[in-house]
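Bumping with the actual sequence this time:
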Amino acid sequence: MSQTDPRYTIKGASEAQQQAVDFLASQFLLTDERLGSITKEFRRRMEEGLAADGRVLKMIPSYITQRPTGTETGSYFAIDLGGTNLRVLQVTLDGKGGVSTEHQKFVLTEDAKSRSLFDFTAQ
């Protein structure tokens, strides 16, 4: 940055401090060309990850073949097991575009964390 960007001007800063802020801010600014390059590389890595195991970016195929129409019906569950919580979500679709959800969150105890994952989730 040859000129201070007013968004990053620090009132009362010395010239050296302002130069340091300008330098740091410049590290986070992306040109359209650089953003396009990053996007292209990210997409390439995703496609690589979907094509084979052992790639830099691991991907799991979703098997979604079409967009929802709103006429779908039924109840569907999602389970998220993290390091400290277990979250369970039930989504019910009414076939008329309506959705209702119910969810519960459980804090994992130290005992639960030390047990087998399958023993814990089966309870």
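The tokens above came from a reply further down the thread. The longest strand covers residues 85-94.
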